[in-house]
Each structure stands twice: as C-alpha cells, then as structure tokens.
Write a structure and sequence with these properties.
It is a single chain. By secondary structure, the protein is mainly β. The protein has 13 helices and 60 strands. Helix 2 runs parallel beside helix 3 and helix 6 runs parallel beside helix 7.
C-alpha cells in the first residue's frame, strides 16, 4: 500500500475530521458534570496506556500491508518516542532541522506505527468521536484496518467520527505518525524537536444529533454591576432545545431555563480576575448529556492606549511557558501543570504566554480556576525562513582595500525572507486553519484575554487575514502578533486588527522612546524580555520601573519558564542540551534559559523576579514609611500581613506585625516610629506574608520583602582583632623577592609580578598560591557577545608584570610601592597599576591600588584580587545574601551577616559560569583574618577556579580546585540579559578609566 502523500500537500490539512469546535466533555448527569473529572464521565473512554509500537527510519521502509502489521515493541501513550529510546533528540532554535524546501520534507522521514485494541459494544443511537489532543507532526488513522482520515497541527485536537468503522466487541486502532510534514515549516519553535502521540487520546460517546460546538458570550456593563450571558450552540444535524442552569461562584442556582436561543441578564455580579478568579457554573442539558462550563465575567478593553481589565489598568507580570519535562518531554499531565502554576503563584507571576502553541485544552481551565491571565498562541512559528541565504559583498583582509558595507540591504532581504510564509499563497490556508483550530477550541476559557496569531513568522497578507477573522469571530478579546513590526519591501503592513505594539527584548530605553513621541499609542507589550539564560535577569528591576512609569506599558513575559533539558541517558542523572546527542544543526545551551531548571528547581533568577514583582513596596518619605499597593484589584488588608523588624548593627531592637488598609494602586503610611540616627547601621526589614490561604498558596507564604537602610554604616570596631605584640618587622630584600617577618606572621613579595607570593600565620600558609590581580570572570550566558571583545583584548589571559618596586621599612611598618601592569600575549597593555602594600606589626596588611585603563578597551568584567585558600574554609560576611547578588541583580537578597563555605556559596548552572558573587560587602571574616575596605565591595567564594568554569561545558564535568578560591572585587560588572536582549546598561559596567581602591586584611 502506497502511503497517500497528504503530508507534503498544504491543500490537505485534515481529512475526515470533525469541524474545529470548543473543548468540553459530556456527562450522564448533573452530579457527574459538577463532581467528577473528565476521565470519570461514563461518556469518556480513555485510550492512554501502553500501545504496540514499531519505529521506522523512513516512511519508505513501511511494509506494503502496514495497517495489518502487529508491532512487537510497546510505548506509553502519551509520550515522545525520543524519550523512549527511538530516533534521537535534536535541539534547534531558528534553523530548520530539515532542508528549506517547502512544502517538501526529506525522504528519510522517520515514522512510527501505534496500535492498540479496545472493547466496545457500539449503540446505534450514539456517535463515537475519537480525539487526539496532540500528535507531532501528523497522523494517518486506521480503525479495524480501514483508513479513516488524516490530520496535522501538532498542538491542537484532531477529532474523528469513527462510528461507522466500529464493530461489536474487539476493535483495533492503528495510527501512523510521521516526524515531519509540510506543517513542520510552521512549527519551528525554539525547543527540542520531539515526535509522537504526546497528549491524551480518548473516545467520546455522543448522541446522534449531538451538541458539536457552542460559544459562550458575555458582556459586562461599563459600571461593572451587570452582565449579559448568551450561548451560540451548533448541533451536528439540526438545532435542539437546551435546558440550562447557572450557578453563582458559591454554587447557588441563580437562573435556569430552556430553549435554543436565550440570554441571561445578571446583576450584582462577581467579576473574575487573576487575583480573585470567581467562576460561575453553566450547566447545559439536552437528551442524555450534561455539559459543565465554568465561566468568569470580566471586561477587556483598551482605552486611550491603556489595557484595562474590569476598568482597571493592569500589568502583566508574566512568563513564557513551554510544555517541557526531562522525564516526559512534551507529555505534560495535569499534576505537572499544577506544579508549574503553584511555583508561579508562589513567585508573584500573574500571566502566561503559551509559547508558542496552544497548551492541552484543560490547561486554560486550570488558569481559569487558579487565576492567571493567558495570551494563548496559535501553533505557528516559522523563523527558520529568515536563515536563508542573503548575498553579501566579498570582503578583503587587506587594510589598503576598502570593504563595501551593505547592512541595510542585507537586513531588508533577511526580513523579506522572514516573511516568506506570511505572504505565501500556498500556506495561507494552513495559517488560517491553525488560527481557527486554536480559537474555536479555547474560545470559552475566561483566562484567555488575548489571542496571539503565532510567533516569529514575519508579516503579510496571511496574518492580516487571520487577524481580521479573529476580530470578527471574537471581538470581546484582544489580538496580538509581535512580528507585525517587520515590513516586507513589497508589502505595506495592515495593522488595523492588532491591538498592541509588541516587541521582544526591547531595552527599557526603547520603551521610554516609544512613549516619548507624539500621537496615539497602542499599548506596549513585551511578549518576551529579560532572557533567563544561566545567571541572568539582572535587568528585571529596570523593566519593572519602566512598566510602572507609563500607563500604556502593560508589562511583559519573561523568556522563559523552564530549562529545556532532557536526560542524557536512562540513568536520569545528567541533564543535556543541544549537541549532547550528536545532532546537527543544534544551538547548544540556548535552550537552558529558564527561571527554573528542567527539574523545577528555582534558579536565583526566579527569586529575583519574585521580589521585583512583590505585591507591595515600601519607601522612606521623610520620617515616615510609605507602602504602595501594586495589586490591581485587592486591598492589602484582604491579602497580606506586614511583619516589621528594626535592627541596629544587625541586632533586632523592635519587631511586630501590621495589617493595614490600602486600595489597589494607592499608597499609605505605616504607623511606625523611626529611631533617631545614632551613627550605627539602622535597618528596617519588612516581610509580606499571605494573610489567608489562596489558590495554590498556603497561609503565611512570604510574598516578598523590603529592606530599608535608615542610617549609618556597619560598625566594624567589635570585629577588629586584638593587636599583636609590638615586635619589629624584619625585612630581607633579594633580587626578585622581598621577605617580611614577624614572630606571628610572615609574607613574601614577588618583584616580578608585583603581588604577595606567600602569607603565613603561626607557621601555616594562608595563601596556597600567590595573590593575583583579577579582571576575568567565567563568562555568563549573558556575556556571550561581550566576552568576545574581552578575549580580543586579552582579559582572559592577563597576567601582572612589575616594572619597579621600592621598599621602605620603619621597624613597626613596611611599605612596598610598586608600578605594575596587566598584560596579555599579542595585546597592548590592559591596565596600569600603582600598588602600595603596607604591612604593620599589629598584623594588618593594606593594599592600596590606583588603576588606569586605556580609553579604547572594553569595560572590565571585574577588578580585584584573587586569593587561593586552603580547603574547608568557613567564612562570615556582611553583604547582600544569602543568594548571589550583583549591582543589577539584588532584589532577592538582604544585607545581613551570613556564614558560608565554598561549596555552599556555589550556585549551580548546567553550563558552568560566573556565580555566587555578593554585592555590597562590608567585611569577610575567617578564623585567620578579617578582610574589609573603605567602601562596600563584592566577593565570590568558590571551590572552582574561573579557568575550570570556563573550560567545562556541563556542571557534572567540573573538578574542584585543590584550593578554596576567594575573589574580592572593587567592582564587578552586572549581569543583565544580553544572551538575547539589550546590552548591559552603562550604569552596571565597570567602565571607569581610572579608579582607586583599598583592601585591608587584619590577621587574628
């Protein structure tokens, strides 16, 4: 049997499927509809479980009589076959994993046969509808060896009426799934590419003339007191009368009636929003079927360029979420989804963009129930078209040859390529079909406030037609599509049906510029921002501030929720990323860009975002403390309790709890008396605890915190060690070294490097290797672009050279003055340093540095000293902790005294990189020394060297150093989110051309 070539024919998208329609499950009784899960309905026949399975490297390898084949292997459904040991994983972001030859796909197109049997006694008065909620990439269906139909769209439901194919007793389903089809060109999402039946499969038993579709329409009055609700039903054969009951959010019957066209008028309504997801229950009944739909009442509109929900301007504090799990791949169950939602609620996330396809149909029901705003996105992404060849001028390496620059032409041609599918007549119906399927399936879900046409697929006539259809079909919601900002050279974009100006990764300054120009504005939506790859999200606070500054900025969606990292092998101990499976092409660890790990362990990025998005914020105004309520619909008193704690030099002097009234978007002063300044460090810590249990959260959950410095700086006098006996310092100067000795300690100075080469106390070596000037850090993922500049300047291999040193000995004090530089092979001088080392007989070592940097060189990763200490060191420090903190990433940390060791201070990232620094440090204390400075500094304490972090591609390949490594930094440049986002802000760069700093080390 020759397989019909529907999979390369964009004119055949579905064959013998039912029309796209709303998702719902019929039940045999009202009680069942209200109380039972869908799987417990008598009309639901679940087909999940182990299926017989046969994998083929190409569909051409299928036997002629493949519908009669009895596969010997088995596979769980739902699952991805790559997760079960077949084929291999491949991660690619933009590049297609197949040749760009639409609508054709490779002849070596892997496929798999799925087979299972089930027992059924079909009733003549019933119809049997077989549902596949997700199959990648397309499927051919056979029932009892007879061909039934064909369908594609991996992330939307395909439903077949199989009534006439069934027999009494044992029935057999055979499904042929292909890895690629013409639809794969529209499914080029940034993810691991996996295949198979990855969502639920079931049969619905329906009446002969069954309710095939219905659209629940609601309209809330401008005063938010009244609402209208009506239903537009569609039956499979002819209209029938429907009985209805409407229950209020407490489950009380408020209206009932019957008919085939009716409208319900409601007064004194309870509104739905993400903070208070109030749901009414609509029960539809006809014949033997009861259908339950939970419905929220909300009003969505744009007024004067401001997004309003229930007449209130709101901000999306959102994330982009893929279906991804290291165990199950794309196959995500309800409990896995709830675990994600629970983590999101716990970290103050109120919105989700379904990137970049519709989730399982029940996912939006969970968002209705638990309170999340959804941007629901069609299963369309085609950015691989932008990677096609564009001619560029040939260049010369000779300085005397002037090279041609044609950047604008190249940019425009790339955009034109990008818009290929958006303008291709061949793919117009496919784009429209994916829009229809998505909207029709999920149109009754309250949490969906915005329809998104897709992602990164250019713009043109096809998306204009899709936007126009959406606006006609569902004018109650808003329409989004970011790629409308791209203009094809031969087409003028029509943006009338798009409600937002949407961009990705625009800098805060770009948003400011958008609102700084004259004219009417659409709301500005960042559908992706603050790329959470590795040690990231250093700019989260800056984005918060810019969102709040402009009412027309409606927030954004961080990219992205979780790392995409399948397990490398069946031991399930090592997580992997692109290239680990030997695939080509791949995009390395660009998939490891989540706020949580693949195993749902929160990264510091998520904790940073949580406190950036805390529901209230405090600030000092004169001698009072004001708090502002950033919730959109909830009074503070109804949501949280404020715990306060005054401290002096980290010792608590007063604490208590407050419960105050403050309306949404308003401010109020706290009834707190501030202590008078007394020269000591005075702090006020405020913690915000959930007052009562809420959906997915327990009472007492900490929603965020503020820490306000009221006055002073930490007094270190009590930490200073007792002075050593006043014995004179002995000095010995040699050709290349200077040695200084005291009865309790000794040190050596290297006249070649200009640094301390040894330091001993009581006969024990404190420095296990010579002290180093340090400007390098293991590049973070956000350093991927600037690190090329750093390496070109030699920062990664810099070493110190001393040009001159001068010893001055005064008996109780020794001063060594030096003139040094940091150099790298083949490169010009990186830094010029004047370093003064002052050693006193009381055990104090002072290092004063004056630094100059050439104007032309890039900003520094850091500047400071690197100390190699013995293992098992315990440190006490006062800084922003206990989490890692940087100049631009410290919202999740507080000033306090902490204790740590090198292993505990390390923050683990799948791809090793700079981590674990602490900003705003006042001192570091060990059993041997106290280290401090004139000004707050940063430090890092790690069991791994910078060189080791740079050299290893995965965390599980790291080898600990034989030392604990302490880096103390005058400053370290910030983190940002430049892995896919704006360059690091100037304010967060160590870009000073000259500076001075001083470190003091007191020996105990």
């Amino acid at each position: 049997m020759m397989l019909p070539n529907y999979f390369e024919n964009p004119e055949v998208l579905h064959l013998n499927t039912t029309p796209h329609h709303a998702y719902f499950i019929p039940h045999p009784s009202k009680h069942s509809a209200l109380a039972k899960a869908r799987e417990e309905s008598d009309y639901f026949i679940g087909l999940n479980g182990n299926w017989n399975f046969a994998y083929f490297d190409s569909y051409q390898d299928l036997p002629q009589d493949f519908p009669a084949l009895s596969p010997k292997d088995s596979i769980p459904v739902p699952s991805n076959w790559q997760q079960q040991g077949y084929d291999r994983h491949q991660y690619t972001n933009i590049n297609y994993p197949i040749p760009f030859d639409p609508p054709y796909v490779p002849l070596q197109n892997p496929c798999a046969l799925y087979r299972r049997s089930f027992h059924l006694q079909p009733r003549a008065d019933k119809r049997y509808l077989l549902n596949f909620e997700g199959v990648d990439s397309c499927l051919y269906l056979y029932i009892n060896r007879r061909f039934v139909g064909y369908s594609q769209i991996s992330h939307c439901s395909s439903e077949f009426d199989i009534s006439t194919y069934l027999c009494a007793g044992e029935n057999e389903i055979m499904v042929l799934v292909l890895k690629w089809c013409d639809g794969s060109y529209l499914e080029d999402q940034d993810k691991f590419r996996m295949s198979g039946i990855f969502r639920d499969v079931f049969i619905l038993c329906r009446e002969q003339n069954y309710l095939q579709d219905f659209f629940i329409r609601t309209q809330v009055s401008p005063d938010l007191q009244r609402a209208q609700l009506w239903v537009e039903p569609v039956f499979s054969q002819h209209m029938r009368e429907i009985e209805y009951q409407l229950l209020d959010p407490q489950g009380q019957l408020i209206q009932e009636g019957r008919g085939n066209q009716w409208q319900i008028e409601l007064r004194d309504i309870r509104l739905w929003n993400a903070e208070d997801p109030q749901l009414y229950s609509l029960i539809l009944h006809y014949g033997e079927e009861f259908i339950l739909q939970r419905i929220g009442l909300r009003r969505i509109e744009i007024e004067k360029g401001i997004l309003l929900i229930n007449r209130q301007a709101i901000k999306f504090r959102g994330v982009n979420r893929h279906d991804s799990d290291p165990h199950s791949g794309y196959a995500i169950g309800r409990e896995q989804a709830i675990a994600d939602l629970r983590l999101m609620k716990a970290h103050n996330i109120n919105a989700i963009r379904s990137a970049h396809y519709p989730n399982s149909p029940w996912f939006a029901e969970l968002c209705d129930q638990y309170g999340f705003y959804l941007i629901s996105e069609s299963d369309i992404e085609a950015h691989g078209a932008s990677m096609q060849y564009v001619s560029v001028p040939e260049q010369s390496i000779l300085l005397n040859v002037k090279n041609r620059c044609e950047h604008e032409r190249i940019r425009q041609q790339t955009i034109d390529n990008f818009c290929y599918f958006a303008r291709s007549p061949l793919f117009k119906q496919a784009i429209l079909d994916r829009t229809y399927a998505h909207l029709e399936r999920d149109k009754n879900r309250t949490s969906i406030v915005i329809w998104s046409l897709g992602n990164e697929s250019g713009y043109g006539e096809n998306f204009e037609a899709a936007a126009a259809w959406v606006k006609t079909r569902d004018p109650s919601r808003l329409v989004h599509y970011e790629s409308a900002i791209y203009q094809h050279s031969e087409h003028q974009n029509d943006l009338r049906h798009l409600d937002f100006h949407s961009e990705m990764y625009a800098a805060p300054e770009d948003i400011e510029a958008y609102f700084g120009t004259e004219g009417d504005k659409k709301p500005f939506l960042l559908c992706e921002y603050s790329h959470a790859m590795g040690n990231s999200n250093g700019d989260a606070e800056d984005y918060f501030q810019i969102f709040e500054r402009y009412p027309g900025a409606c927030g954004g969606f961080v990219w992205e929720w979780c790392d995409h990292s399948p397990y490398l092998d069946q031991t399930k101990k090592k997580l992997a990323y692109g290239g680990d499976f030997g695939e080509y092409p791949h995009d390395g660890n660009f998939c490891v860009d989540g706020l949580v790990s693949a195993e749902r362990i929160p990264h510091s990025n998520l904790r940073e975002l949580k406190n950036v998005n805390r529901p209230i914020r405090a600030e000092r105004k004169g001698d009072k403390i004001a708090v502002r309520n950033y919730l959109d619909f909830t009074d503070i008193a109804d949501y949280l309790i404020i715990e306060y704690e005054f401290s002096q030099n980290t010792e608590t002097i007063r604490s208590g709890q407050l419960k105050i009234r403050c309306a949404p978007h308003q401010s109020v002063f706290l009834p707190l008396q501030l202590p008078p300044p007394n020269g000591q460090l005075q702090l006020l810590d405020l913690r915000y605890r959930l007052a009562k249990a809420a959906p997915l959260l327990e009472e007492g959950h900490i929603l965020g915190f503020d820490q306000l410095t009221l006055s002073g700086r930490l007094n270190l006098s009590h930490l200073l060690p007792a002075q050593y006996a006043a014995a004179p310092l002995q000095t010995e100067e040699q050709d290349y070294h200077i040695h200084i000795r005291h009865p309790r300690f000794s040190c050596s100075f290297d006249k070649n490097s200009g640094t301390l080469s040894a330091l001993e106390k009581d006969g024990r070596a404190l420095l296990q290797r010579p002290l180093e000037f340090n400007i390098w850090r293991a590049p973070t993922d956000n350093d991927r672009l600037i690190s090329e500049c750093w390496q070109n300047a030699g920062y990664d291999r810099a070493y110190s050279r001393c040009y001159a040193s001068h010893l001055q000995a005064y008996g109780q004090e020794v001063l060594i003055r030096t003139r040094c530089a940091l150099l790298a092979v083949s490169k010009s001088r990186i830094l010029t340093l004047e370093a003064d080392y002052r050693l006193q007989n009381n055990g104090r070592i002072e290092i004063a540095l004056r630094v100059q940097r050439p104007q032309a060189l890039p900003y520094l990763p850091r500047f400071g000293l690197r100390l190699f200490l013995s293992k098992q060191q315990k440190l006490e420090y006062f800084a922003y902790g206990p989490d890692e903190s940087y100049i631009d990433k410290r919202q999740a940390t507080k000033l306090s005294i902490y204790r740590t060791d090198a292993a505990s201070n390390h923050r683990d990232y799948l791809k090793p990189q700079e981590n674990g620094s602490h900003w705003g440090c006042e001192y570091i204390k060990s059993e041997d020394f106290l280290l401090y400075s004139d000004q707050a500094f940063s430090f890092n304490f790690s069991p791994y060297s910078q060189e080791e972090l740079c050299a290893k591609t995965h965390n599980y390949k790291l080898s600990e150093s034989e030392y604990d490594i302490l880096c103390i930094d005058y400053k370290m440049s910030g983190i940002g989110s430049n892995s896919c986002g704006p360059a690091l802000k100037q304010a967060y760069r160590l870009d000073e051309k000259q500076f001075e700093c001083r470190f003091l080390l007191d020996l105990y």
